[in-house]
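Tutorial, part two.
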Amino acid sequence: MAQDKLVDAEILGEEALELKVEKIDAFKLKQLELEHELKLKELEMKEMEKRKEDELKLKQAELEMKERLEMDKKEKEDVFKLKELEMKLKELEMKERLEMEKMKIEMVKEESNTKVQPKSEYFDAAKNIRLVPRFCEKTVDKYFPQFEKIAHNLNWPKPYWTTMLQSVFEGKAAEIYSALPSEKSSDYDTVKQEVLKAYELVPEAYRQKFRSYKKV
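Running the prediction step on this input gives:
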């Protein structure tokens, strides 16, 4: 009887041990299954992310291509517009040249129909003004003889002398010339006399100055 109990106990112990081992194996198996599922999900997530990245890259590439095509199109349009402008400018230049040629022809015709003043009688005052001696208020008495000498040597027509003078007058001389009426301002001798009088360089002015000194 006792032996039977011992045998039963041993059998039960072995069964319990086997059951425990089975439970441990089942737990490990479950754990492995869960880990496997987790890895699968991670792989799926990575695959999805990669797919999204690829889609995004594809969209970016499409956008870049579209932008490039639009830029190329715009560049072509700009080149076309530039060529159009160049053509218009050339047309305008051609028209201007033609107009200039017409004007030249008309001017030549007018010149041929009008009498040209003989070269010997023509006097270019503007060209000769730079040769007029500089006017200095401190040496007015010496200025007019110097001016007359140059005018005679260069054959300046006397009617132009006042024109030449007024270009260099300054101070009192300029004021006197401006104050003279037009008929007097064109007469050289009158202008000369009035300027000398202003600077008290005429005989009458000397006499008046002498009288004032005597009174003192």
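Residues 50 and 207 are 118 Å apart (CA to CA). In part three we will examine how such features are distributed along the chain.
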